[in-house]
Each structure stands twice: as structure tokens, then as C-alpha cells.
Amino acid sequence: MPVYSREDDILATKIVSFFPQNKDVSTHHAVILVFCAHTGIPKALLDGDVITAKRTAATSAVATKYLVNGKPDVLALLGSGVQARSHVAALCELFTFKEIRIWNHRFDGAVKLAKEIGLNCAACRDVSEAVKNADVIVTVTSAKDPVLRLDWVKPGAHINAVGACRPDWSEIDADLMKSAVVYVDSREGAIKESGDIILSQAEIYAEIGEVILGTREAMRKKTTVFKSLGMAIEDGIAAKLVINKLGIQ
Ligand SMILES: NC(=O)C1=CN([C@@H]2O[C@H](COP(=O)(O)OP(=O)(O)OC[C@H]3O[C@@H](n4cnc5c(N)ncnc54)[C@H](OP(=O)(O)O)[C@@H]3O)[C@@H](O)[C@H]2O)C=CC1
Ligand SMILES: O=C(O)C1=NCCCC1
User: GO CC terms for this protein (predicted)?
Assistant: First the structure.
């Protein structure tokens, strides 16, 4: 995933592998190579795993800030892996949830994460139980077929749809995609790579950047989906923060 931004003084590329069948090691591995944006000289080779986890969750947190309907009390996560953990951390920086619910296709994964999070968190055996009356839902699974259905979701909820990053995979059922107001990180990416968009033929209302810039409306009262695929600029900006903190010129 290459990025060049003259404005941000960034020239970098991330190489990321995804082996969903991995069991005892992470399913995603990444490195980020950063170059000087003026001379092209290599500056740093960074571990991309942590940056991928944190920048994806930070992006969802920003989307939630703009799209959530009022003060959210209940957070539901579908999936209990790396992104589930980073999303809890990022969302809890911005919001105070009274209740956090976790569903995973293997119940013990949900139980383990619920214990890590603590008091206000419960593991759920069914998706419908996890998302009932939830204000914010995060889908962070490696599912190839929908795990979240329209009739389980409270009208007006905000959903961060983070998994299903292939054109033939989907996490959200087509009825939910079509009835929600859909925001994406990149239109160009979503229409080529997101099964949730392609298979449902849902209309994309806006890029989240347009909402942040104030050129498209945040439809907070409607059910909203932020379909995230990940963008190289997120890695580039995050890598720059790391490099600056380390004092690398
Ligand atoms: N939008 C973006 O920018 C990014 C998106 N992603 C995507 O987010 C998703 C989560 O990533 P990450 O947390 O790193 O991955 P992990 O492998 O750490 O977690 C995946 C989760 O999905 C569960 N899972 C696996 N297979 C299925 C299935 N068939 N049905 C339902 N759940 C399943 C796993 O359960 P168990 O471990 O118990 O099997 C686990 O809870 C992936 O789809 C990934 O590609 C990742 C990085 C960036
Ligand atoms: O780093 C990203 O962005 C990724 N997006 C989709 C899934 C793999 C990693």
C-alpha cells in the first residue's frame, strides 16, 4: 500500500500479509518502509502490525465521533481478535460505554476478551444478543458471509464495518447495507474491494473525509455504516508520528 503526500511530506509503503487460517500467530503481518519525500532515501523500516491495529481503530473512532446518534451507552463487537482489542481501546478514548458486549464465532474467544476488558463487559453466544439496542457496533471478523443482520440492529445505530476486505466477502447483510446510510474511507477502494458494497449494491452516500470537511452531511439519526478498508495515507501519517517521536530526520 504506497502513499505519497507532498502536503504531509510523506513517502512510504506498507506490505501486509493476511493468512486468516493462522491459529497461534497473528493473521496479519506488516512492515512499513518510509523514505525521504524529497530525496527518496530510505529513512526507516517500521513494524506495521501495531500501526495497522491502532490506525484502523482510530479511523473507526473518528467515524463514530461524526456519525453516532447522541451519547452512546452500548458498544457491541463482533470478533475478538487484534482489531477487536484495538477498537475497544480507541473507542473508549472517546466514549464512556455503560456496557460492552462481545460475540465471536468461537465463544471462548469472546469470553477471553470480555475478561480482559473487565466489569462492564459480557461475552454473548448470539450476534442478536450482542447487538440488541447497541448504539455502536463494530464488525471485526474474518467472516466471508454476513454475520450482522438488519432486524437485529437498533434503528439509528452506527456500525463500523472493518472486516470483509475482499470483493467476494461480506460481514453485513445486503438488506442492512441497503437500508443504512453508507460512508466509506475511499469510494475508489470500496467499489473495487468491498464485498459489503459490491454484493449488496448499496449506494455510497459519502467518504468520511467529506463529512469531516463539512461537504457532506452526518446523518446521525439514521442507521449509519462506515465501511473501512484501510488507506495507505493512514499508515503514512501514523508512521510519520512514530518517526517524529523517535527523532528520525
Ligand atoms: N479496514 C481495515 O483497515 C482493516 C481491516 N482488517 C480486517 O479486519 C478483520 C479483523 O482483523 P484482525 O482482528 O486483525 O484479525 P484476527 O485474526 O485477529 O481476528 C479475526 C476474528 O474473526 C474471527 N473469525 C475467524 N473466522 C471467522 C468466521 N468464519 N466467521 C466469524 N468470525 C471469524 C476470529 O475468531 P477466532 O480467532 O476465534 O477464530 C477472530 O475473532 C479482518 O477481516 C481483517 O482483514 C484488518 C486490518 C485493517
Ligand atoms: O492494512 C490494511 O488497510 C488492511 N486492510 C484490509 C485487510 C488487510 C489489511
Answer: cytoplasm
Say whether pLDDT at 168 is over 90: yes
Task: Specify the residue with its C-alpha closest to ligand 1, atom 40.
Answer: 81
Per the prediction, the chain carries an average pLDDT of 97
173-227 pLDDT, tens per residue? 999 999 999 999 999 999 999 999 999 999 999 999 999 999 999 999 999 999 9
Task: Give the whole-angstrom CA distance, residue 94 versus residue 165.
Answer: 26
Distance 119 CA to ligand 2 centre (A): 31
